[in-house]
Every structure is written in C-alpha cells, then in structure tokens.
User: What shape does this take?
Amino acid sequence: MKQVIVVGGGPSGMIAAIMAARSNNKVILIERNEKLGKKLFITGKGRCNITNQTDVETLMANTLTNRKFLYSAFYTLDSDGLMEFIKELGLPLKVERGNRVFPASDKSSDLIKHFSRELENQGVEVMLNTNVTELIIKDNQVKGALTDKGEIFGDKVILAAGGMSYSMTGSNGDGYKIASKVGHTIISPAPGLVPIETKEEWPKSLQGLSLKNVSLTIYKKDKNKLITFFEDFGEMLFTHFGISGPLVLSASSYLPKDTIRGIKIKIDLKPTLSFEQLDNRILRDFEKNNKKQYKNSLSELLPQKLIPVIVELSEIDENRRVDQITREERHMLVKLLKGLELSIKNIRSFNEAIITRGGLDIKEVNPNTMESKIVKGLYFTGEILDLDALTGGFNLQIAFSTGYLAGISI
Assistant: This one.
C-alpha cells in the first residue's frame, strides 16, 4: 500500500484523493484553509456550475489554452462521467440553459458535503489549517512534503494547490513556488475571466445596467491591419470601473497577456438589425414623435438609463425636436448604436478573476497520467496547470478530469 499526499482541498484535490484511496492507497489530504472547497463554495454565486453536459469535442473547443493536453483527461472522465460520479455520491443534479450543470439544490455546499463524506468513507486523512512549504525530494523522486507542522512522508504527491484567483480562498500562488523549487517552469500567471476597466468614465453612470443580446468585439488597429481578438453575442453589465458580465468575462480570456495598449471594445446594441433596418426603425420612431425633443424620443429603442449617455455621445442637441434632426445626424446615431466604442485601460485583479491564465508548463507533465516529467511520483492537477477555458462549467470540468486521472494513475 502506497502513501499518497494530496496538497490542496479544492475540486481537483478532493477527487484525486478519492480516486487514489479507492485504488487501495493510504491518502492524506492537506488543506491550508479551515475547511475543504473554500473556493468551490463561492463559484457560480454559490450555486456551483459543476460542468457542461456535452461531448469531449465541445469540452476541447471551449478550452482556450493547451486543449490537446486534456485529450486523455477528458476521455477518462468526460462531463457525463463526472455527473454519474457525483450522482453516485448521492447528489441530484440539474441541467440549465447552455447545458450548464448545477446541484439540484442550487447549493455548492451540498457538493462539498458529498465529497467530504466520500473522503471519510474512503478513509482519507484530512489535515486542515496546514501549509505545505516545499516538497521532499531524493534521487529525483518525491518522498513527501514539508509543512508548517513538520515533515509528512509519502510515496506519491499530487500538487493540487490552485492558481492565484480569489486569493482570499487560499489560491495565492504558493503552488507555483513549490513546483518551481523542484525544477518546473511557470508560465507567467494572469487573471482570467475577469471584468475590464475602461478609460472612459461614462460607464460609471450606467453602473448596474445589464444589457442582453448585444454583440461585443475586441480589436486593435495595428498600422493598416485590423486584429480581432474576440467577437460574440450575449449579456454584459456596466460597472463603476467599466464593464463585466458573462460576455465580457469570456472576452477577457482572449486578450493578449503581454500588453493591452491600443486595444478597443466595440458594442453593437442592436446586432440583429442591419444599419438600414435600424435607420428605418429610428426614422419611424422620429416620425411618430416628431414634436418631441430628441432626449425624449428614444424610450422605445433603449433602456432609460442608457439614453442620456447615447444622447451626449451622439453630439446632437438634446433639446432639438426630432423633426429637425438631419439624415446625416440620424446616420451618426445609427453608427453609434451599432458601434459604441470603449478603450481598455486595464483588467481587474486576481481577486475578481474567476480563474488564472498561465501556470505550470504542461510540456513538463505527462498528459496520460498527470505525472511530472522532471520528478518521479509527483503529479499536478487543476488550476496550477497552464490550462484555461470559457465560462459555463468548463474550468471545473478540467479540475475534476485532471484530478481523477492523477488519482487513478497512482
């Protein structure tokens, strides 16, 4: 019987510990926090979007970084396999819009309870409030871990210490330090799935306004060339610093990690209408309200909160009667509604990022087992790896799949 040490009690660490224990190993799970699954507890606003019920090809397509590395992990535990695993633990699940999977109770705490119970059933020893500072290595083989409570010896170590997002939950980048001390390369971590700060101040006046069914493009003009980083359709939110919401979070993961200088955002407020169709629509509204002031003529077209901003940006006198607005001015308004522009000032910090981009270089990890190619008996799972995906349950699927594969590979 081998002694296995799992460092980190998040989703990948818990499933790795369960699978290693089911394979007749003695398992110790070390967690720095006072309880397991602290970050899992707050995901999906406390509801926990566990996975996305789809095929492996779609899981791969929604992974942005190093998707081919996950081939074995996804085929070992795909979303159907994960759902079956969780249902067997006794937790009912439900599938919502976009194939997103949640606990039927809408409580992430229920998922953590069922995992905790299975860890107990499998005889896993859980050490809480314990920090791992480095690994014990001898002759290029892992022999255990050094903690703030002393040395713990083992035949195998699974490092599931997370990334740097939501550092208040314990993801503070210590896993990278531990891995780099034993010779692993770390690709510079950056916040992923994160809100965007804009140079313009007007989004502040729209704080709390959510827009559905808008199109968002992120682009840069480089000399005479137009580079498009992201273009999609969905829901966004204005904030006191800029923009957020599902569409913006996804867009942030397509931004280059080196520099955001000169990158702009274009919002199409009416993507289902062509320029001509929108022009005709506005013309009809103007004809119907021909005696009204311009500022009072857009209520059927736009949310009330957005109207003053559009009026100001259009540079048409708010007190003009609409029957006095020229065709050229109306076309400028259409152009504005089809291409509302913002300049990116920055992205928000790791404390607001859902995931971490970057991390441990996957070239130094065996994708069929999750074992280190540098140190024998050392495995890596979850967010510590240089892997990231879009919103919708895909990042948690990566965590569970890599953890499961590491656990059974031991």
